[in-house]
Amino acid sequence: MGAVRFAGYAAIFGRADRGGDVVLPGALVAAGAVPLLWQHRGDPIGTVEWLGEDARGLRVIARIDGGEAARLVRAGAVDGLSFGYRARSVRQGAWRTIAAAELIEVSVVAQPMQVLARIHAVEDG
């Protein structure tokens, strides 16, 4: 099986994740190209083609080059998204609010910290 493209949300704004973090709109800034990883580890599995914010969160369109990751995403067996970051400005209250962070990577994951951060569209790439 070949490549697969997908769209989804790597972050949802204003909603606490399982770890108690809340990401604010405008908080995530990439310094350059953002790699697409599998479970936050290893070499990139594909390419982040587009990143952008909307009212809901950080939307991503990406392509997985092939292999097992592409097969699992195509089948809907893995549909979580997540992101790695370096915090630049946080506020601690009832939740830890991330006001500014450097976006390091986007990952396809089995269990996202933000339960709403999911792949919502898949097509052959």
Write the layout of secondary structure elements.
Blueprint: E1 4-12, E2 21-23, E3 28-30, E4 35-38, E5 41-53, E6 57-64, H1 67-75, E7 80-92, E8 96-109, E9 119-124
Parallel strand pairs: 2-8, 3-8, 4-8
Antiparallel strand pairs: 1-6, 1-9, 4-5, 5-6, 7-8
What does this protein look like?
Strands 1, 2, 3, 4, 5, 6, 7, 8 and 9 form a 9-stranded mixed beta sheet that branches. It contains 1 helix and 9 strands. It is globular and about 45 Å long. 31% of the residues are buried. The chain starts with a strand and ends with a strand. The model has no long low-confidence stretch (mean pLDDT 94). Helix content is 7%, strand content 58%. A hairpin with a 3-residue loop joins β5 and β6. By secondary structure, it is mainly beta. The chain has one helix spanning 67-75; strands at 4-12, 21-23, 28-30, 35-38, 41-53, 57-64, 80-92, 96-109, 119-124. It comes from Sphingomonas hankookensis. This is Peptidase U35. Keywords: Hydrolase, Protease, Viral release from host cell.
